[in-house]
Amino acid sequence: MRGDEDLLGAARAPAILGADMDRASLHQLLSSFPEVEEYVHGGLPAFRAKGRSSFATMLDDEGVNLFPGEEGILAFTQAHPDVCAERWWGKRLAAVRVDYRNAPRDLIEEIVFESYAARAPKRLVDRIAR
């Protein structure tokens, strides 16, 4: 999160119709944010905003790594331990691994938004409809 802003639920990317979140739907959601660049990381799709650090990596058939910041990682993993797990890189808490196959759609959309907002330039985040 940025400073004192409460970004949880503050805005959403365009919703994708349907109740289930499969890999194709998640890929579409990740690609729907302003100025998103897709690239290959470790042989799998990854996403960043305008050349910044990744906000999503390692999208595979079982989950995705998202980067909502340490505060967000802790909040999501503690509130949803059945579908969210901490990802540590060395001694640094780096990401939340989300099992998108079993997570509620609104939770996935929230974590994706938080991850985008944590990494994207503010001017891009402000373009998302509130």
What low-confidence regions span 5 or more consecutive residues with pLDDT below 50?
A: 1-19
Strand order, largest beta sheet: 1-2-3-4-6-5
Major sheet summary line: 6 strands, antiparallel
Q: What percentage of residues falls in helices of 4 or more residues?
A: 25-40%
Mean pLDDT: 85
Shape: globular
In total, the number of strands is 6
Number of helices: 4
CA distance, first residue to last residue: 16 Å
Please trace the helix and strand order, writing H or E for each element. Answer: HEEEEHEEHH
- Rg over CA atoms, rounded to whole Å, is 13 Å
Q: Structural class from helices and strands?
A: alpha+beta
Strand content: 15-25%
Q: How is this structure best described in words?
A:
- The chain has 130 residues and is an alpha+beta fold.
- Helices cover 29% and strands 25% of the residues.
- The protein has 4 helices and 6 strands.
- The protein has helices spanning 23-31, 70-79, 105-119, 122-125; strands at residues 36-41, 44-49, 54-57, 64-66, 84-89, 92-98.
- Strands 1-2-3-4-6-5 form a 6-stranded antiparallel sheet.
- The chain is globular.
